Amino acid sequence: MKKILALILALAMCTVALVALTSCNEEKADFTVGICQLMKHDSLDQATRGFVDALKEALEAEGKTVEFDEQVAGEATLCTTVINTFTAKNVDLIMANATPALLAAANATTTIPVLGTSVTDYSDTFAGNIPANVSGTSDAVPFDEQAKMMIDTLGLVAGDKVGVIYCTNESNSLIQYNAVKALFEAEGIVVDAYTFSETTELQAVVNTAAANSRAIYVPSDNTVAQNDTIVGTICTEKNVPVFTSYGGAVCYASLAIDYYELGVETGKMAAEVLLGTKDVADIEVKTLTPSVVFNSELCAKLGIAVPENN
What we know:
By secondary structure, this protein is α/β, with parallel strands linked by helices. It contains 12 helices and 12 strands.
């Protein structure tokens, strides 16, 4: 029995030694980056993928490695919890995907570099005072061009009603609502807001909006985007065209940016910061040139003529 116990003890000690040796031999990444994505939906997913791909490529070209701590908060109130795990780990950089994530990161640290993406207006988000450790990319598109596109392609005239659907928990959406409202109303077109705070309210809100609107405009609202099949199904059944600022299958047309490329540009910024070639404070917020996209199949179903050059 003593021999057996001695053998077991010896094996245990060898196992501990092997684990310790393996741990010592594991190479630690040169950089650790925390990614806080507000929620799962295609646009945000694409931005995160573009960021990861671009940053890895840029660092590998310099012989450096990066470890990503990628987290999806699920809702705005949980962004702070995610960000706090990053600050506790003292990551080298935080990428905040969407406005609530960016606000949580900026409130949590003034020393760790923070880069945002899928954020519409940085200046308005921070009341004109963007923190020195914050920059990134914006998914803003020219609202006047979006409004004109809807007016021209749908033949909207004074007195027509456009419904804008958005979640009241997203400050980005209110900014966009106010912008398009002013532009449409300058042409005599009536704009009504159809808002919700819980996704369980969305179906009823969309039904009301579709029943009272000539067309529906959806800003780059993450909550609507995550559930936009509800919007698309109801509005198509009622023959009401939907225009979104972020693209997607539910819209008859869009003037939107490529979110993967938006993430790529953010990743390039991150590489500059981590490699020490630029300080965050010296990086200007960047926007991309949007593209016009028509959903030919949906346009045919709704009786909308697609311009010949599209």
